[in-house]
Design goal:
About 15% of the residues lie in helices and about 30% in strands. By secondary structure, the protein is an alpha+beta fold. The longest helix is centred in the middle third of the chain and has 20 residues.
């Protein structure tokens, strides 16, 4: 079942495909995947850096954000993407490919004239820029280098950690919302077994600011950090009432679980405390409300996948690129850039990429050639860059244009008298089909 997710789509998807609109903002300069050459042209907020007050934001000029949320229409329309065959892709594909494989998929592909395979490396963020933007004129203390070579700063109320490919900033305020939120996942994280954030936090807007206004304020900060993000944003409004409910529920459930093992729950932050390792609040109020945004990083107008996968050959974990922001009435509480890559070189541009239909046929051939009896339905097809290994360094990758297919598996019902081998009724997987060669990336 599709999650009941709240999504801020910053363009009308139908218009995007029909008219071939490109992402807002200038192209990234050579040498940096996802960097934003136009960051210096970003309007300054009255409250500098990450601390943008309620009065600083306005929904009227939100970068690329429509006032209304829209869904991909079911009508068949042309898609403008890379390569002539890709330009003939449709925005929704419903087709039975035989065997146990079918598609009922929304298709998302950017308007691009060419697609290169990029040689890239996990990038180091500009240390001084990050400190200046996020600490807003304050002078944080630089701490001793971590064992992994990471760089960290702290001013007592906020901290910043920089490692290759990663920037992580957080304030003390963000500690209190971890307990009622961290057991839920964003919609893009299909590998998570937990419930979706949108199934619990269902509000559209919060009292201190609309999501459009909050998104505008967040863009002001992201642009200063010079990393381009896609216009499509996954957005959740985390309200105090739902946080209180989830905190109380989780404490109760964990207490009952401990009691089944003869452990008496404590209230002293010891290992017998159901909230051990977390900070909690006696009472959440509207002052604790915040928005959580998830952005895709883009390079050459192609999003880099957010999905994490494990290579089959050497069981190497490959991280997708994600920007996660939590924003309250005080400004940015938490900002995390994960697996951000810096371009080193480019291969020759592919003359023609596989269309979504061709990628789906490749996937059908692979799945129908297996011994699985599960019914497989593709629910989404996105043209993205996918990081792949090419040497022994965990910092080096090739970014390959690929179709990212979300596969919904519905377990076949066991025959009468047979067991189902512990399978759940339904689960999701991701499959990457190389848009240049047609091979599965795994």
């Amino acid at each position: 079942m599709m999650r009941n997710m709240k999504k801020c789509t910053s363009f009308l998807i139908a218009a995007f495909f029909i008219l071939g609109l490109t992402a807002c903002g200038p192209k990234a300069p050579a040498g940096t995947a996802g960097s934003n050459a136009g960051a210096s042209n970003t309007p300054e907020a009255n409250a500098q850096g990450a601390n943008v007050s309620e009065s600083d934001a306005s929904a009227s000029d939100v970068p690329g954000l429509s006032a209304a949320e829209t869904n991909t229409p079911d009508a068949q329309e042309d898609v403008l993407t890379a390569g002539e065959s890709v330009r003939n892709t449709t925005i929704h594909i419903s087709k039975d490919y035989g065997g146990n494989f079918s598609a009922d998929a929304d298709v998302l592909a950017p308007d691009i004239s060419s697609a290169h395979i990029l040689t890239a490396k996990r990038m180091w963020f500009d240390e001084q820029k990050a400190v200046s933007v996020l600490f807003d004129g304050k002078t944080p203390q630089k701490e001793a280098a971590a064992a992994d070579g990471g760089i960290s700063y702290s001013d007592g109320s906020a901290s910043l950690l920089l490692t290759p490919g990663t920037l992580y900033y957080r304030t003390k305020d963000c500690a209190y919302y971890k307990f009622p939120t961290d057991s839920f996942s964003a919609d893009y994280d299909i590998n998570s077994a937990g419930a979706g954030l949108g199934e619990v936090y269902r509000q559209e807007n919060l009292g201190f600011m609309t999501k459009e206004e909050a998104l505008e304020a967040v863009f002001l900060v992201l642009n200063k950090l010079s990393i381009d993000v896609a216009d499509e944003v996954e957005c959740y409004a985390i309200d105090s009432a739902a946080m209180q409910e989830q905190q109380d529920k989780r404490i109760k459930e964990m207490s009952e679980y401990m009691e089944t093992f003869g452990i008496t729950p404590a209230d002293d932050k010891s290992e017998n405390d159901p909230t051990y390792g977390y900070q909690t609040k006696d009472k959440f109020t509207s002052d604790d409300d915040f928005y959580r945004f998830y952005f895709k990083v883009v390079d050459n107008n192609i999003p880099i996948t957010q999905k994490t996968y494990t290579t089959q050959a050497n069981e190497r974990g490959m991280e997708g690129s994600v920007v996660e922001v939590s924003f309250s009435k005080k400004g940015i509480m938490e900002l995390r850039y994960s697996a951000i890559y810096q371009m080193q070189s480019t291969d020759a541009a592919a003359d023609q990429l596989l269309s979504a239909e061709e990628a789906l046929q490749k996937a059908a051939d692979i799945c129908n050639g297996s011994n699985s009896t599960d019914k497989i339905t593709v629910t989404a097809a996105d043209l993205e860059y996918v990081p792949t290994p090419y040497n022994d360094s965990y910092e080096d990758v090739k970014l390959v244009p690929a179709w990212s297919l979300t596969l919904q598996y519905d377990a076949a019902k066991p025959a009468k008298g047979e067991k189902n081998d512990g399978k759940t009724d339904s689960y999701k997987k991701i499959m990457f089909i190389n848009a240049v060669t047609g091979e599965e990336i795994r």
